[in-house]
Design a protein that fits this description.
Strand 2 and strand 3 form a beta hairpin. By secondary structure, the chain is of the alpha+beta class. The relative contact order is 0.24. The protein is about 35% helix and about 25% strand. Helix 1 runs antiparallel to helix 2. A 4-stranded antiparallel β-sheet has the order 2-3-1-4.
């Protein structure tokens, strides 16, 4: 499943740890606090539980982590001003990301 994850976390240590967890799970950073990528339901459940366990009782009052499932059709309709993410790479349609 294609997942979009965003967060707003004030604490630097927690924010960095969450970002590293998302990157290790294979999600791509498309903005500073926004990640997207293909991840199985089982993989997502494990990742979410890990983030939940790490951040439990440590998130500030206004902090949040949000996750959305996005269908391929919707993702292909992405509108971007500025640097466009490599949609084919994120969708798993090619194995190499050219920079």
């Amino acid at each position: 499943m294609l997942r979009l994850v965003s967060y707003d976390i004030e604490n630097n240590k927690i924010r960095t740890r969450v970002a590293k967890m998302l990157l290790r799970a294979g999600l791509d950073r498309i903005q500073y606090s926004v990640f997207i990528g293909e991840i199985s339901d089982e993989g997502w459940s494990h990742l979410w539980e890990s983030m939940e366990g790490y951040t439990e009782d440590q998130l500030g009052e206004g902090d949040q982590i949000c996750s959305f499932v996005i269908g391929p059709r919707e993702f292909r309709k992405l509108l971007v001003l500025g640097k466009v993410p490599d949609i084919e790479y994120i969708m798993g349609e090619k194995d190499v990301l050219y920079l």
